[in-house]
Design goal:
Elements (H helix, E strand, L loop, with lengths): L2 H24 L4 H20 L4 H4 L10 H24 L1
Helix pairs in contact: 1-2, 1-4, 2-4
Length: 93
Amino acid sequence: MSNVMKKFKEQQKALASKIREEKRECGYGGWDLYKMKREFRHKHIAYCEVRGRTREEIEKPGDNNLADEKYIQEIKEKLLKELENEKAVRIAA
């Protein structure tokens, strides 16, 4: 696994810990918790798709709970760019 993907996965783990902590402190409500959960979900989808998973393998959302495709694309583009840069550095070394 590349360093970029490891770093991304570690960030996701840290975010998951923050979400669990927020739930313990504040229950399931709150705007901050909603934003963190939304960020985690969309980053998880982007990460899995970059690794080759199909959306159907990742999640099966309800009709009223569709993911924000624009946000996912932004995350994927950033992640793919970082992977490309990492690959270029490896080749140059």
